[in-house]
Amino acid sequence: MIEQPTVLRGRTVLEEEILEDGAIVLDGARIHAVGPAERMGAGDRELAATVRATPRSDLTFLPGFVDVHCHGGGGASFPDATTREEVLTAVREHRRHGTTSLVASCVTAAPEVLLRSADLLATLADEGELAGIHFEGPFVSSARCGAQDPAHIIEPDPALTLELMRASRGHAVTMTLAPEKARAYGPGSVAEVLIGNGALPSWGHTDSDPVHARAALDYSRAELGAAPGARSERATVTHLFNGMRPLHHRDPGPIAEFLSAAARRGAIVELICDGVHLDPSVVRDVLEIVGRDQCVLITDAMAAAGMADGEYQLGPQAVTVHDGVARLSGGTAIAGGTSHLLDCVRVAVSRAGIPLVDAVYMASRQGARVLGDERIGRLAPGCRGDVVAVDADLRPVTVWRAGEVVD
Q1: How far apart (Å, rounded) are the C-alpha atoms in residues 187 and 120?
Q2: Buried b (16+ CB within 10 A) or exposed e, 381-402
Q3: Do residues 16 and 61 touch, judged by C-beta distance below 8 A?
Q4: Is the dihedral of CA 331, 80, 157, 135 positive or negative?
Q5: Which residues pair with 12 in a beta bridge?
Q6: Could you tell me if 321 and 312 are in contact, meaning their C-beta atoms sit under 8 angstroms apart?
Q7: Which of 54, 148, 174, 393 lies 20 to 30 Å from 245 when distance is taken between CA atoms?
């Protein structure tokens, strides 16, 4: 019998189903048991009695979310942070809204800036505050740079990539790069260095034709399949549709190839389901085309997440937020998101008509799959005690991380 279990009872969202009267039993930092409340504690009378004595809540319990592409929040920016406290400000903003595992994303910048950021973010990852690091650039397309500063975009450099991997101390998760660039993939490439150091190529910010897009994904799949201890068997696609040549039937670009790779279980596509970057119907259609196991919801959030409209910074770029939409100051390019991952789940359910169980799965289990971490992103015995209690409108009420209530 657990000495002092924490029992959460109410509507419970699992990977494949929703239990209308479920129970989650937390034993310290871990989940001890999950299941229908009426059948909980088989073989353990005391636990069964404790669960039965726990009143059923009117809340819905979700697994802690996993965001694998986030630039900041709460007024703090990961690419611009110079102190531990600045990083934690952004982490806490998203954690209070249910994201219990967060990958910090950098943006295209000078090599020395990226190396300093990697060192700082790796320290927070060493402490368990971050789940890893994502480099969005600098080996991307100037033609499809979006909010990436074109002044710092450079050609793929395997030597610099290796320096960044070493500075990340094993915490690099992904790097966004354009497949059409020389040395992006293949022998002696950036992708080879990433895979050899436990990270994943994330193809995006690209003006590629179909040939390079397909070749990059095929190369990634073969190399990851052969790499011992690879983080994942699949590369990712950085925010599908955003920052890439649009799909046209006579000038197809990379998007059809990215969808094809996902449909063949050769890639996981990121989707920013905030109602700004993509029409919600597009998210629904991609889900129906490739399946939820090939989609991961992300925020691409920047410092303004959880904050008022105003002026912000995203790496070297000035950003203006108006009506909750972030754009480069004086321009039209969208410069990251201002949502939390729970907001994206809410958009997926309320505006795209995606079933709650699938929206939650893409915001939790799929991020954990990109990270290669089976201990997070799901409500299952032995997993870390990450739970999000939400109300009927999918607004956060209480968040537990490793069994502790998040302040």
Answers
A1: 31
A2: eebbbbbbbbeeebebeebbbb
A3: no
A4: negative
A5: 19, 61
A6: yes
A7: 174
Task: Give the whole-angstrom CA distance, residue 191 versus residue 217.
Answer: 10
Rounded to an integer, what is the distance from CA 25 to the centroid of its chain?
26
**Residue type at position 222:** A
How deeply is 353 buried, as exposed, middle or buried, from its count of CB atoms within 10 A (0-12, 13-18, 19+)?
Answer: exposed
Q: Which residues contact 3 (CB under 8 A, 6 or more apart)?
A: none
Kindly state the tokens that stand for 153: 């975009």
99: enclosing H helix or E strand: strand 99-107
Whether this prediction's pTM lies above 0.90 is answered by yes
Express each pLDDT in 109-166 by its tens digit.
999 999 999 999 999 999 999 999 999 999 999 999 999 999 999 999 999 999 999 9
User: If you ran DSSP here, which 8-state letter would residue 353 be given?
Assistant: -
Read off the DSSP letter of residue 405. Answer: E
Closest C-alpha among 164, 231, 168 to residue 193: 164
Which amino acid is residue 3, in one-letter code? Answer: E
Which runs of consecutive H residues, i.e. helices, occur in 185-249? 190-196, 210-226
Map tokens 């929206």 to a residue: 359
Long-range contacts of 353-360 (CB under 8 A, 24+ apart): 353/284, 354/283, 354/284, 354/287, 356/13, 356/18, 357/13, 357/14, 357/15, 357/16, 357/17, 357/18, 358/287, 358/292, 359/273, 359/297, 360/13, 360/62, 360/63
Residue 394 near residue 61, CB atoms below 8 Å: no
Quote the tokens at residue 242.
């955003």
Q: Are 324 and 333 in contact (CB under 8 A)?
A: no
Is the pLDDT at 43 greater than 80, yes or no?
Answer: no
Only one residue has tokens 């870390």, namely 384
Whether the CB-CB separation of 306 and 274 falls below 8 Å is answered with no
| CB distance 129 to 91 below 8 Å | yes
Which residue type does 159 have?
A
Quote the CA–CA distance of 58 and 143 in Å, as a whole number.
Answer: 50
Say whether pLDDT at 41 is over 90.
no
